[in-house]
């Protein structure tokens, strides 16, 4: 038999998402509001305000996706307090690729 806590986490769905300078804030259908430190998610931390604002709610709000940052989070993971599992090497590669793309964009302007 599954515990009530597990059932509640599986049913939790995001309705709104905001990213401030230092927090990820997620409003849930049941009225709860989650606020977690943005530094837990380095891709969001390094993203521009415009990139952070482009969040897509998937699976009826069970997942959060930032296409410009290639970041995906689950509401369940947020409720469990899971930080990004990305390795430092993966983040370094992503930042290097991002820097190259930005440099190319600047050259075309």
Helices, strands, pairings?
Blueprint: H1 4-11, E1 14-19, E2 23-28, E3 33-37, H2 42-46, H3 49-53, E4 56-58, E5 63-66, E6 71-74, H4 75-79, H5 88-108
Antiparallel strand pairs: 1-2, 2-3, 4-5, 5-6
Characteristic terms for this protein:
109 residues, 5 helices, elongated, NE0471 N-terminal domain-like, alpha+beta, 3-stranded antiparallel sheet
Considering the protein shown, what is the CATH homologous superfamily? Uncharacterised protein PF10387, DUF2442
Distance between the termini: 60 Å
How large is the share of residues in beta strands? 25-35%
Work out the number of β strands.
Answer: 6
- H/I helix tally: 5
CATH architecture: 2-Layer Sandwich
Which structural class matches the secondary elements? alpha+beta
What's the Cα radius of gyration? Answer: 16 Å
Poorly predicted runs are: none
Question: What is the level 1 CATH name?
Answer: Alpha Beta
Explain this structure.
- This protein is α+β, with helices and mostly antiparallel strands and 109 residues long.
- The chain has one domain (4-108): NE0471 N-terminal domain-like, CATH 3.30.2020.
- The protein contains 5 helices and 6 strands, in the order αβββααβββαα.
- The protein has helices spanning 4-11, 42-46, 49-53, 75-79, 88-108; strands spanning 14-19, 23-28, 33-37, 56-58, 63-66, 71-74.
- It has a 3-stranded antiparallel sheet. A 3-stranded antiparallel sheet has the order 4-5-6.
- The protein starts with a helix and ends with a helix.
């Amino acid at each position: 038999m599954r515990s009530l806590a597990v059932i509640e986490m599986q049913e939790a769905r995001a309705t709104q998402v905001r990213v401030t300078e230092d927090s990820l804030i997620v409003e849930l259908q049941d009225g709860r509001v989650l606020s977690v430190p943005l530094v837990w998610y380095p891709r969001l931390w390094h993203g521009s305000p415009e990139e952070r604002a482009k969040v897509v709610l998937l699976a009826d709000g069970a997942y959060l996706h930032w296409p410009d940052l290639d970041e995906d989070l689950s509401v369940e993971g947020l409720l469990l307090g899971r930080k990004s599992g990305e390795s430092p090497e993966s983040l370094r590669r992503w930042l290097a690729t991002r820097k190259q793309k930005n440099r190319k964009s600047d050259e075309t302007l």
